[in-house]
Amino acid sequence: MVETENRPAPTATGRLERTPVVNLLLYLLERKLGGTLEFTTTAGERALFLFAAGQPAKAKTTEPVAYLGRVLLELGFIEDDTYRDSLHDLANGMPLHGQILLNSGAITEAQLRLGLKVQLQRKLVHTSTFGPDTTFAYFDGVDGLQGYGGDDLVPVDPFPLVWTLLRQAPPGKTVTATVERLGTMALRVSRAAQLERFDFSPHERGLVDLLRARSLRAPEFIDSGVLKPQDAQLLLYCLLLTKQVKLAQDGSLPPPPHAIPAGDRPSQVLINAERVEMLAPSEPPDVATRRDEIRVRLATLDNDDYFVLLGVDIQDPPDRIRERFFELAKKWHPDRLAASLADQRDAVARIFSCLTLAYSTLTDPEQRQRYLRRSGSEASEDTGRFSVVTVVEASTAFQKAEASLRRNDFVQAELYCRSACQLDPDRPPYMALLAWLDSMKPENQTPKAMLALIERLGQAIDASDRCEGAFFYRGMLHKRLGNDRQAQRDFARAAELNPRNIDAAREVLLFQKRVTKGSIPAPPPKPITPPNREPKAKQGLFAKLFKK
User: Which of 50, 36, 92 shows the shortest CA–CA distance to 548?
Assistant: First the structure.
């Protein structure tokens, strides 16, 4: 840590209650500052970060957070045996874990650099969980980590970190107040925006792309149907905080689509003591045509595949699919519906949800390949089985299952989850949740039954190695069986896939503390290699790296 004696006075101080970690990151980035940022909790825990040109580039924490060797193991860059061998060398006096692995040829310099970045990110995420009474001090131009780890810095882009931290701990009241202040002012993507720097999911990218296509009011953005309203609100807050969006030129938009244009006002307004009744003239031909178009489109949803739905070919690149989706969004977004067709809003919202699902699937490589495999091998056997409508219904049932599980209503959760699996049987999150619900039944408490459930969760992971739920649930079952190290690896992967999974992060931290205290034995050391082994490679660019 920065030495207490003879150190310069801090350039700035404060508490996280008034200035969260996210705001500090953006402040340093905007001004491209270089120096040391130190956090101290009321319990005495500390975290220190060195910044270079506004980017965090080195970190040290008093608690054992994200050891480099463990990070590289979880990233899949090294195997268990290699990890144990390197721990043996580390115990024999070699000071830098990264250098040990690099010299032995176990990892490349690119892998090491990525591992260091992930390590730093996890330490920042850990620091963001400090309480509101945590104090911070910034020392401009001071390297408070001189002599710690290696000399080479590995800067990390703060933008994806900001989005990760916001999702992990949304500042609810601040988000709501900020968005409410926008009122009905129109927003658009700034010309200087760098949206590609964020690690947005396909659905998040889809909503941002809608804002690229045209200016939107905050309520339109939040209620678009692409994301849950609370998630869309948080995404908008992130875009505002990072200055990716700005007010439209005149600060406003034309009247909302549901307002009645002057030329379409009703011919009479009859007012009585209880209500206002509007009597409109007969429906114009163009409105009747549009109504028929909506009815036909809705009727064909069950039979259209994703490509037909969007009007694209299977060979079309993502850019073409994205362009086509924007064209369709202008026509089928519920907020574009004329006031005279207000009774068709639910139908149009359903059509738009299907278009959004098709778009997000075909522009995400993993989801696209899964969809192609599924539709090619099985759709012909059951026409419409994998239609967009079916997938939307399955997704809705799954969301209800998750909500029931949060209420500890296991019976209802299982009913909804089985419905989702019947509608869309190969979706990894559905498979994983159903296996977890089955694990709670009394008849499945034997080791044999748990191993069978672990195998089912492994099948979900084989289908998608980004299925957070499958890793977390499998970790819980391994923990029940006493397989601590297998459980740790699954919990770590779940926490990596979703930093907001507090349960997974807590399990990782508890495991590390148990290892430190000795309640879980460390991996057995490998016998010392005979003296005539091959000499290690000469030290190169990464001669000095982070300690374990």
Answer: 92
